[in-house]
Amino acid sequence: MKIAVLGATGLVGREMLKVMERRNFPVDELVLLASERSAGKSLEFGGRPHTVHAVADEYFDGVELALFSAGESASKRWAPVAAAAGATVIDNSSAWRMDPDTPLVVPEVNPGDIESHKGIIANPNCSTIQAVVALYPLHLKFGLSYASFSTYQSVSGTGREALLALESGSRSILDGRMPLPQIVYAHPIAFDLLPHIGTFDSDGMTDEEWKMVRESRKIMHLPDLRVSCTTVRVPVFRGHGESITARFDKPVTPEEAREILSKAPGVELQDDPANSVYPRPRYCEGKDPVFVGRIRKDKGLDNALAMWVVADNLRKGAALNAVQIAEMLL
């Protein structure tokens, strides 16, 4: 099995290597690819170093599986090249997610969609993944008709520079100094909340919010699902939280939801608020499941539940989901 990883030196690329190694994914030959800037770096996999190469056509020769996490423009440029060379591409960018000929897959939700791929399979947005893993088992029983998402997204979703910006900005404020001018976000993220992920359209929606709306419909095969969404960047290093309100066609109780979610694939229930047990990003870091808690009846809608959902955005929100798709291909 010859495998290529494009974007190998990024946060998600490195996490993909960790996940493949931990899950004993069959790798006979590994090709690590990145931009010219990262060429020549060395990353360890399988107990030995591997040199990172600047991506070029010849590195996809003989590759059977290619994991991409290098951004939209790189994916649009190189995914067709890899697919034409015979590889199946699992792409973590937004480049192919809404392409009607490209399956958008969360293995716990729509594994059958993999069969329709034509060389490229899209990995969903990190926030969408954890939302649908929590909601889909309930949809199967009660029929999901409406979902409202408010996200609390960590800076690791932006990349390594954002991690450094949060760390340095926090130190500056604690030392009584102003944070350095921002090159990552519109404002310093330390000790603040930014309801601004992506670019705004004429209706005031960001592209991150539209991702959750459109991707959740596609993954769950609910084209008419009504969705509200507000995405917020928070001063947390790793792990996304989501406050979700979900309305169903049939009556549902918190007890029924807990029973279903306690057995749902990819879900871990943490729902004992009286004893301060609920999902937290610090606890979820480095762990595979989507954690669900604070399940309760919504007071404003009939047949509706409110819940709190947290997952490691680099793990299940990106790398693990991609590797799970690869495992299903095998």
Would you spell out the secondary-structure blueprint of this structure?
Layout: E1 2-6, H1 11-22, E2 29-34, E3 42-45, E4 48-54, E5 65-68, H2 72-84, E6 88-91, E7 120-122, H3 126-142, E8 144-153, H4 160-174, H5 207-219, E9 226-233, E10 240-248, H6 254-261, E11 267-269, H7 281-284, E12 290-297, E13 304-311, H8 315-329
Parallel strand pairs: 1-2, 1-5, 2-4, 5-6, 6-7, 8-9, 11-12
Antiparallel strand pairs: 3-4, 8-10, 10-13, 12-13
Distinctive features:
29% helix; 8 helices; globular; seven-stranded mixed β-sheet; six-stranded mixed β-sheet; 13 strands; 2 domains; Dihydrodipicolinate Reductase, domain 2; 330 residues; Rossmann fold; alpha/beta
Instruction: Give the CATH level 1 class of the largest domain.
Output: Alpha Beta
State the major sheet.
7 strands, mixed
Number of strands: 13
Instruction: Going across the biggest sheet, name each strand in turn.
Output: 3-4-2-1-5-6-7
- What is the CATH topology of the largest domain? Dihydrodipicolinate Reductase, domain 2
Characterization of the model:
Helix 3 packs across helix 8 (315-329). A 7-stranded mixed β-sheet has the order 3-4-2-1-5-6-7, with helices on both faces. A 6-stranded mixed β-sheet has the order 9-8-10-13-12-11. It has helices spanning 11-22, 72-84, 126-142, 160-174, 207-219, 254-261, 281-284, 315-329, and strands at 2-6, 29-34, 42-45, 48-54, 65-68, 88-91, 120-122, 144-153, 226-233, 240-248, 267-269, 290-297, 304-311. The model has no long low-confidence stretch (mean pLDDT 97). The chain is built from 8 helices and 13 strands. Strand 12 and strand 13 (304-311) form a beta hairpin. With 330 residues, it is an alpha/beta fold. It has 2 domains: 2-124 and 318-329, NAD(P)-binding Rossmann-like Domain (Rossmann fold, 3-Layer(aba) Sandwich), CATH 3.40.50.720; 128-313, 2-Layer Sandwich (Dihydrodipicolinate Reductase, domain 2), CATH 3.30.360.
